[in-house]
Structures are given as structure tokens and as C-alpha cells.
Amino acid sequence: MRPPRLDRYVVKPTDLNRRPGEILERAGRYPVLITRGDDPLVLARHEWVSTLIGSEERAALLAELSGYLTRRLTGEGGDEGGIFDWLSTFDDAGVREFVGELRAAVRDVQAGKLEPHAIDALLHEWRESTIRPKAYLATLKRTVRIRRR
Amino acid sequence: MSVPLREPPGTAAAQTKDPHHIEAASGSVAKGWDRTVKADAKAAARAFAYLRDHPFQRYPGRCFPLRGPEQRGVWQYEVNDRHRLRYSAVKGEARLILVLYAGDYH
Description:
Shape of chain A: elongated
Structural class of chain B: alpha+beta
Mean pLDDT of chain A: 87
Oligomer: heterodimer
Shape of chain B: globular
Order of helices and strands of chain B: EEHHEEEE
Mean pLDDT of chain B: 95
Distance between the termini of chain A: 36 Å
Strand content of chain B: 25-35%
Distance between the termini of chain B: 27 Å
Number of helices of chain A: 6
Number of strands of chain A: 3
Helix content of chain B: 10-25%
Number of helices of chain B: 2
Radius of gyration of chain A: 23 Å
Structural class of chain A: mainly alpha
Strand order of the largest sheet of chain B: 1-2-6-5-4-3
Number of strands of chain B: 6
Largest sheet of chain A: 3 strands, mixed
């Protein structure tokens, strides 16, 4: 959910005492800006604020990913010890597939078709796919002829 | 040699008329499953019911296909924050699920 603009409804601190019910009701629909000199406050739904904070974290993550991909593309090595080190498990085709899925998810979030947490889930799923215990790999190899792919 | 996966106590009744049959790909996979049931019986029961009723229904971040060409067709169900189930369908067996890995790898 995209948070609405912050200055649609502006009140003074004294209004909070005079009309608390009305202001709370409005804050449930869109953020209320409370003027306070040079230090204004915003009264807003927890869900909107969470979305904003989550957006910042995801933007930072995408910047890290961009750095990793650039290093990989220019042959400067992967991301040893970095948060995207696990992507080195995949060959170029795998990374292309990953980026394609991520781009589609970001577009769907922007279009409101997916919740922002879908991006976290996608990253988690790809990260989990790189964890391959020896016993699992052996079973994977042993069952290759009977598994439906 | 595959062995039937033990149904955890407290597993909900099937929600479908034609549930899947779940087997472990080996005795060691079955033992891994038993350890998972012992560690978290409630979550294991939920996992068993999910696989039995709709093993290939996506649940983002919980039940999803694994990526990478060598894992094509393999799905993962996250029992809890530590335990995982990895499984696939079997050629020529419409309602059989083969568990390739069960346990804690974190």
C-alpha cells in the first residue's frame, strides 16, 4: 500500500485537545500533519509507517544487489562476505532469471498487485534455494530418473 | 527404496477427496522427518497436511519451488524457522509425493 501525501490535513497541537476524536478518525484515512514550529509531527496508521520503513530497507537491499551485479559483470569478483554472496551459486542464466523475477515483483508491488513483503519472500526463496546439504544433493542425484521435473 | 512418511499425531483430516500419498526417498530421509516431528510436532502436522492436500500450491516464503536447473521440479516447505521439507512429484505417479530431504540444515 502506497502511503498518501503528508500535508493533506494540517492541525495545530491545540486541536488535538479540542477535537481528538475527529483527528483520530481522519488519521485513520490519511496522515495528519501536526504543526509544531520547526519540528512537525505526523499522526498516521501503523501500516503506512511500516510500509515506508520497509521501502527504505528494500531500497538499500536493491542498491547492494546492483553493486553485486556490477562487480560480477565487470569481472571484479562476486560478493565474498557480502549480503548477496549466495547469488554466486547461480550461473549467469540463473542470475538473469533471478533479476527477471525480482523486476516483475517490484513492478507488481508498484502497481498494487502484490504486497511489498512479496519482494522479501522472493529473496528468501532464492536464498533458500542455494542451501544444499550433501545428503540432499546425493538424493537429488539418485532420484533424477524418477522425479517429474 | 522409498518408505511411507509417518503421519504426525494431531494431523488434520484431509481437505480433498483425492489426497497425495507421501513417501520418503530413503530411510535416512524418513529418520530426518521423525526428528522434525519430535522437534515440533504441531508444525510437522501442518506441513504433512499441506503436502497431502496441495503440495504444489504456492505460499510465498513458506512453500515454493526451488530455483536452479538441477532442482527443477523440487519444492520446499518450511516447517518452522529451522526445519525444511524438500520434495517432488514422481513420473507416472499422479498422487505420489517423494520427500528428498527432511530436517534441520541451519
